[in-house]
Amino acid sequence: MTIRPILILPDPLLRKVAEPVESFDDELKNTVEDMFETMYDAPGIGLAGPQIGYMRRVVVIDLADEENPDSGKIAMINPEIVAMSDETVVSEEGCLSIPDLVYDVERPSEVTVKYFTPEGEEVTREAKGRLAVCMQHEIDHLDGVLYIDYLSRLKRDRVIKKFQKAAKRAS
Question: Residue 39's domain spans which residues?
């Protein structure tokens, strides 16, 4: 298992749409294990393929959530939100690709997600609360959407400028 570098805003790969996984092979399983290790090392509760430059529709999540007792280690391949509640929840979100910042984001409070396991088994899962928010956040990454996109234009622009300056200083 390898801890992979996490891409940081403004890396352009974070804005690209990930391709579907077509082959449920050992490479996929190894990448999923690397993603879990990378996420734990960060530390975080979710990680999407594009965040490590793996441009496939793969998400890993691991959180202890009282509303979802079975919310331990979850690997979702080609996840798709098939239903969401009209009811919303506002919760604090952060992101490993936008370190050291948290903002309140409003999202549907419940979702139904269809995905495959790394072994190719199809799963349909309902989630609410923190797990639902985490699933939406990570699936957004697969479509090039970041949680700051839900903020006001002013806040979002400030975050982007801050990270662009930091990237310039680092290079």
Answer: 12-170
